[in-house]
Each structure stands twice: as structure tokens, then as C-alpha cells.
Amino acid sequence: MTQQWHILGAGAIGSLWACHLVDAGFPVKLILHTQEKLDIFKQKNSILLADRAYPMTAELADATDTIDQLLITTKTVDTNAAFNSIQARINPGARLMVLQNGMGSQQWVQAQRPDTNVTWASTTDGAWLKAPFHLHHAGQGITHIGSPQQQCLPWITPLKNGFLTLEEDSDIRLTLWRKLAINCAINPLTALHRCKNGALINNPDYLSTMAAICREVELVAQASHIELFDGPLIEQACHVAEITAENYSSMLQDVQKGRQTEIDSITGYLCETAKSAGIPVPINLMLLNKIKQIQTT
Ligand code: PAF
After folding, report:
1. Where do the Ketopantoate reductase C-terminal domain residues begin and end (predicted)?
2. Residue 282 in contact with residue 229, Cβ under 8 Å?
3. Which of 26, 109, 232, 244 makes an SS bond possible with 21, Cβ 3.0 to 4.6 Å?
4. What is the Å distance from ligand 1's center to 83 Cα?
5. Could you tell me the residue range of the domain that residue 96 belongs to?
6. What SS3 state is found at 30?
7. Edge-to-edge strands of the sheet including 90-99?
């Protein structure tokens, strides 16, 4: 197997990981989705982060080299199309790491290619692109990496030599569920009311809706054999809303910019799981429909 990592989805988190992997000594190739983007990239053949240029290469999805190690950092709404565009290039036995918000894509990728080794990852790093291929690392976080199938992932050790903080996670499904639960509680409500996260705890109406969302999420988690937190979810959600009181959630930012949100892989995943388990989740369904409506208007 080559050392090369391909990265599908060169947004902020994909670019951050590209720099991290270069720092850790791996050759990195970005898979870009337009010729225009590739032309811009080729002016520098690197990503700029904190005044340092991280050299790497880039190509389009229709390139012919095969893929042994792939990091998938597309937005969840773009995953299926992006993955399908490179499927044929992925070697059997390849290592695929899905680093995304929400849930559903991880299982989908696994189902597409059962002949590969798929790991799941979740990060609290914050980053944004100042300009194409010019990155700002706004907040140092932790990336949890794990596999629901394999306990031991020795290949992660060399990945730890770059500048990001990585942790092997023996219960990555729980980690992703926890993030999903908090996102279900905060993101759709802030996007609907176009408010900062802090408004959810200062407005009694918003707070009681958030509490109702949390009760539904807890029931679905329980049915999925997930023990979310030691205390009630609403306490965790209020805590996160408090410490991020001045933030606009990622879903609100998408709505404000007229972009597709990640509602399907957050509240949508929750509602699908609830349906399979026969659990009514009327508040989450209402929010799912409202955010979908906002997206199409
Ligand atoms: O998606 C987000 O914006 C964040 O995960 C969170 C926790 C809701 C804070 O803004």
C-alpha cells in the first residue's frame, strides 16, 4: 500500500487535514470537483496556513491513479455524488476515513464498499477558508477516530505526528451519537429562528421546544442501545448553547448563505432511526420539514 492520502472534499476541514498529513510526512492529493478550482490550485500547488505553504498535489475525480487511503470530508449532502465519481478508482482493501457531521454517510460508504476498511471520525477543530486554498485554523480541537468493526487501528499512530490532536476512540458510534444529539437540539432551532445559540436558553419558548427535542432524541438513542450522557440531554444541550452563546450554528450559517444544510444527516437520520424503531418524534419531524422548506424557498 502506498503512503499517499487522497482527500475528497477540500473545504475547511479537508484542507486542515491535508496540511496535517503533509506535516506528518504523507504525500497528499486533493480531489477537486471543478477545472476552475484545479487551475487556481495549480498556481501555488499548496495550501497556505499560518504563513506556511504545505505542498501537495491535486486532480479531478476522473484522474486514473488508484486510491489506497482516502479521507472523505465532503459535506454530507454531497457525499453520494462525490464518492460515486471516484468509486472505480478505490482499490480493494483501501483505508477510507469518513470525517463528517451527522450520521448516515458512514454506513452508506461502508455499504458501497464492503471490500474496504472504513473508519469513522468526528472533530471539534474549527477552521475556515479565508480564500481558496488559504486556511485559518480558528480553534484547536480533538479528532476522534474509530471503527465500529475493529478495535485496534495501528495505522493511526503515524498520523499523530502532524499538528492536530488525534485520539483513538473505542466507541466512535457513541461519540457520533453524542454530537448528533447536541446538533439535533441546537442546529434546526437556531436555523429556524435565525438566532445565536445563546438565544435558545434565554427564550422560554425556544427552551421548552429544545427540551421536547431532547426527550425524543433520548428515546431514539435508548432504542438504539446508546447511553448518551450521564445526565439528561437537555442539560448538555443547554451547556453547549451557553458556552457557544455568541456563535451562529453551522446550520444557520448554511441557511443564511442559501446553501444546502446538513439537516438530512442530523434530524433526518434521527427521524429515520425513530421510524424503524416505531418511536414517534413529532417535534423533530416538524423541524426536519421546516428546514427542508426553508432550503427550497
Ligand atoms: O454545528 C454547530 O454549529 C456546532 O456543532 C454547535 C455545537 C451546534 C455549536 O454551534
Report:
1. 171-295
2. no
3. 26
4. 25
5. 5-170
6. strand
7. 57-60, 28-32, 5-8, 67-72, 90-99, 117-123, 142-146, 165-168
Q: Say if residues 291 and 267 touch (Cβ distance below 8 Å).
A: yes
Quick one: which of 206, 190, 210 has its CA closest to 255? Answer: 190
For ligand 1, atom 6: residue with the closest CA: 249
Joined grid coordinates for residue 134: 488559504
Output the domain CATH number for residue 256: 1.10.1040.10
Instruction: Kindly give the confidence (pLDDT) of every residue in the chain, 297 residues in length, as a single tens digit, with 9 standing for 90 and above.
Output: 569 999 999 999 999 999 999 999 999 999 999 999 999 999 999 999 999 999 999 999 999 999 999 999 999 999 999 999 999 999 999 999 999 999 999 999 999 999 999 999 999 999 999 999 999 998 899 999 999 888 889 999 999 999 999 999 999 999 999 999 999 999 999 999 999 999 999 999 999 999 999 999 999 999 999 999 999 999 999 999 999 999 999 999 999 999 999 999 999 999 999 999 999 999 999 999 999 999 887
Q: In angstroms, rounded to a whole number, what is the distance separating the alpha carbons of residues 279 and 100? A: 26
Residues 157 and 49 occupy one common structural domain: yes
Ligand 1, CB cutoff 6 Å, lining residues: 182-183, 186-187, 197, 240, 244, 247, 249-250
Domain count for the chain, please give it.
2
Q: Specify whether 69 is located in the same domain as 112.
A: yes
Which of 170, 195, 215 terminates a domain? The answer is: 170
Q: What is the pTM of this model?
A: 0.94
**Looking at the structure, do residues 231 and 142 belong to the same domain, yes or no?**
no
290 is catalytic: no
